[in-house]
Amino acid sequence: MDYSIDKIPQSDWPKLLHEIPDAPKEMFGVGNLPTPDNKILSIVGSRKYSPYGKQVCEYLIQGLRGYPITIVSGLALGIDSIAHRAALKAGLQTIAVPGSGLSPKSLYPKSHFGLAREIIENGGGLLSEFEPGFEATKWSFPQRNRIMAGMSHAVLVIEAAEKSGTLITSRLATEYNRDVLTVPGSIFEEQSAGPHILIKLGAIPVTKPEDILEALGLEISEPAKKEINFEKLSEDEQAIVHILQSGVRDKENIIKKSNFDVSQAQIILMSLEMKGFIKDESGIIYII
Question: Which CATH number fits domain 6-215: 3.40.50.450, 3.30.360.10, 3.40.50.2300, 3.30.1600.10?
Fold first, then answer.
């Protein structure tokens, strides 16, 4: 893998980055820039994410598979790295904007250098306004956030405490006239406080991938319905497959709509997975 750090000519910067009033003076990159004409979605969230936050992030990004979207995040621990990995899994381009320079010795966090390499190897890249040898500081992260907000068509906040630095990115996105999207959560969870504040301030609530596609102005394509030989399935298995074909993906909702008791539904789902008809990805079920 070629890990050469290049100074990027302004003419090659993401177009929207030129529009912000505090645009960087210079930019450095490794790998590829965002694919021209792709919609750019920045995803930010808490380092101390919940299982719900992880599941939601993976579910939403998986639902963007096949669309011309580049996922941008900050390479940090928590939701950032989950977003990058989910994008790689969904076959989407992803760009990391760390709060440090891009040299292997200074890249932050060092534990994510392997992830950075994987991003580059799969057609993505790294971007930073900092000199390659710059070490991350407390102030470099909020400064970096304006790059993420500025280059994006929209910013999606997954989880954030009431006083989280994550909200800086959403505030900047509003100032730059970008759409701010966020995921509602439990009123009892600290990490849901930030998204609920954003919703009160006018952010777009996101509960399914189609909400993101609509916000980005992308036409939602009808998923191809896979032909399934129902003769190979029991009546109970057929009932579950029909629910999946109606668009329900979340395991909990599948079980509720099936009218089976929980243990019976779990057995049916396990049977379908063993037969190769479905795949369970962190509680989100897909027909394969």
Answer: 3.40.50.450
